[in-house]
Amino acid sequence: MAEEEQKHHHHFFHHHKDESPSEVDPKKEEKHHKHKEHLGELGALAAGAYALHEKHQAKKDPENAHKHKVSEEIAATVAVGSAGFAFHEHHEKKEAKKHACE
Fold first, then answer.
1. From the CB of residue 58, how many other CB atoms can be counted at a distance below 10 Å?
2. Quick one: which of 34, 40, 68, 65 has its CA closest to 52?
3. Which of 11, 64, 77, 79 is 20–30 Å from 43 (CA)?
4. Contact at 8 Å (CB) between 47 and 79?
């Protein structure tokens, strides 16, 4: 009866000690970084467009101009961060390509 009352615990992280890290295909890794680079570029473009939209709304709606200016600044910050991520992934892609040629 005591065995039936014991609860099974679920773990979020499974550690398999006997598994060794497998080799990653260099072409796959390069493609992965290229895909992430494009996502970063798309994010920068979308956030930049939204920042411009909010800037226009601030001029168009003077009653809520402060709200629109805050949203514009946040969108501009997101655009810069996303562009930085795209730049980072571009360098990761170049590094993966270099390792693929070796």
1. 18
2. 68
3. 64
4. yes
Q: What is the pLDDT of residues 55-71, one digit of tens each?
A: 999 999 999 999 999 99
**Residues 6+ away with beta carbon under 8 Å from 68:** 54, 55, 57, 58, 61
Residue type, 65: A
Residue 50's pLDDT is what?
97
Tokens of 84: 């930085």
Dump pLDDT digits (tens) for 84-93.
999 999 999 9
- Token pair recorded at residue 94: 């170049």
Buried-exposed string 11-45: b where 16+ CB fall within 10 A, e elsewhere? eeeeeeeeeeeeeeeeeebbebbbebbeebbebbe
The closest of 47, 55, 49 to 79, measured between CA atoms, is 47
Angstrom distance (rounded) from CA 65 to CA 56: 10
Checking if the pLDDT of 17 tops 60, the result is no
